[in-house]
Amino acid sequence: MARSVTVRREAWPIKGSFRISRGAKTEAELVVVEIEGGNAVGRGECVPYARYGETVASVVAEIEGVSSEIANGMTRHDLQHRMSAGAARNALDCALIDWQAKASGTPAYALLNLPAPEPVRTAYTLSLDSPDAMANAAAEAVRSFRLLKLKIAGGEDLARVEAVRRAAPAARLIADANEGWSPDDLIRLAPELARLGVALLEQPLKADADGMLEDYKSPLPLCADESCHTRADLPRILGRYTYINVKLDKTGGLTEALALVKEATTQGLRHMVGCMVATSLAMAPATLLTAGADFVDLDGPLLLKRDREPSLVYQHGLILPPSPGLWG
Prior knowledge:
Number of strands: 14
Structural class: alpha/beta
Shape: globular
CATH architecture of the largest domain: Alpha-Beta Barrel
CATH topology of the largest domain: TIM Barrel
CATH superfamily of the largest domain: Enolase-like C-terminal domain
Number of domains: 2
Strand content: 15-25%
Order of helices and strands: EEEHHHHEEHEHEHEEHEHHEHEEE
Strand order of the largest sheet: 5-6-7-8-9-10-11-12
């Protein structure tokens, strides 16, 4: 069946600014792919990420470079060998799954032999800020969300976590350093975070400098984010982390993400499902990864000034399954 492929750039304003250890941004720059054929249109969305050497232009060029092959029938399984993991492959992989679901009239979860998605509780992310500002944000967020994710970066981190804990004493907390800690920070601060009841510490050290974790006895569970993209990373991170953060833009789509979760589980690793700051179109495929996840962090659209329509429905800290009109 003949298909056509279109790709476009989009920019979505963020509420205020979103700051992590590497810097701040005020809009989400996205790439959206549409695959059309047989009266069906499949869509996928990705977030080019400079940390991984991606730009909007480079991701668009990658997609355009395989568009004719996609139009001529390349499958998502072929795509895994044709393209490297990353944002471009993610958009195409998710668009192909969505197209197949719509063309066949079969929900994406059924195509992938997965259970039907159910409502799932998500974290809400607090942008890196002063302790007082993060405490104020926590006090507001905890009205709807029982799980809060704190962006940290060294420096005032202990004061930040203490302030959030005072503002949200019953909340479950994840602390995410985005590679912003030194080994000394880890040794000094990890016991304090454990004392404050932080449930998970995400990527404290730089991905190329986390070898010390093999001999480090952490007082709280550690999660690999920048250190784990695909199954190829598992041998290196075993013994360093107990969790992995699975993000579609890192794995290069839902196809590899599902394989990663399966393989990681056999290796004794647990997982969380994460996201970039993006619209509901980027979150919807990731909801199929949430069965068996200990933590879910799919709050990207909540950080935007507005979302696309149709969108995911968030109710009292829960994400409801996506409608077919959105994806899948």
